[in-house]
């Protein structure tokens, strides 16, 4: 697949089959992430692959966070939220959690560390697409909770920036509706 075509045709695929994804494909996707641009070559990305029961363990963390964050909710609402959060990681056979551990070197800007990891995530999404897999980059408030950070044993400065839900597509994505680049571009000569 040509690079420009891959960029233009990649879509978030939120519905995937529960068929196993070969380990070799997962490794190719992670390796693609490590080729992202990274000022000072600090390699701030960390990757965690969740399959099988690992997804249930993450679901338990999501349930715990939801219980804490919604303690004042009615019992009916709370039960519904708890069940939904607990099941969320089961929507795909593989989740790659992508974390950041920013460098503490004086010459390294934290914003550039985040940019590097976000670039790694985009590389991973493009790699998944080129392999015929469906992927979606999921975040939300729960992603940045300290219990998620602790689950992945990240430092107090680290955090998870993405949950990439991955599998073989089980949906047809809609065409992208993009604002033309010329409406968003200023040429300065």
Specify the biggest β-sheet. 4 strands, antiparallel
How are helices and strands ordered from N to C? Answer: HHEHHEHEHE
Q: What is the strand tally? A: 4
Q: Could you give the distance between the termini?
A: 34 Å
What is the CA-based Rg, rounded? Answer: 18 Å
Helix content: 25-40%
Tally of helical segments: 6
Shape: globular
The proportion of strand residues reads 5-15%
Structural class: alpha+beta
Please, what is the oligomeric state?
A: single chain
Low-confidence stretches: none
Strand order of the main beta sheet, please?
1-2-4-3
Overall mean pLDDT stands at 95
Description:
The chain is an alpha+beta fold. It contains six helices and four strands. It has a four-stranded antiparallel sheet with strand order 1-2-4-3. The chain starts with a helix and ends in a 22-residue tail after the last strand.
């Amino acid at each position: 697949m040509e690079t420009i075509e891959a960029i233009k045709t990649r879509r978030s695929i939120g519905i995937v089959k529960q068929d196993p994804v070969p380990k070799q494909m997962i490794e190719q996707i992670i390796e693609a992430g490590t080729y992202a641009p990274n000022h000072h070559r600090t390699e701030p990305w960390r990757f965690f692959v969740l399959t099988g029961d690992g997804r249930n363990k993450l679901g338990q963390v999501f349930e715990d966070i939801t219980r804490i964050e919604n303690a004042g909710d009615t019992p009916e609402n709370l039960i519904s939220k708890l069940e939904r959060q607990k099941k969320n990681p089961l929507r795909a056979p593989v989740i790659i959690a992508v974390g950041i551990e920013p460098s503490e070197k004086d010459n390294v800007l934290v914003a550039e560390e985040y940019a590097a990891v976000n670039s790694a995530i985009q590389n991973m999404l493009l790699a998944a697409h080129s392999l015929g897999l469906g992927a979606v980059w999921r975040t939300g408030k729960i992603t940045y909770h300290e219990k998620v950070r602790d689950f992945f044993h990240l430092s107090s400065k680290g955090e998870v920036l993405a949950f990439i839900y991955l599998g073989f597509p089980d949906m047809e994505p809609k065409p992208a509706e993009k604002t033309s680049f010329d409406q968003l571009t200023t040429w300065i000569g």
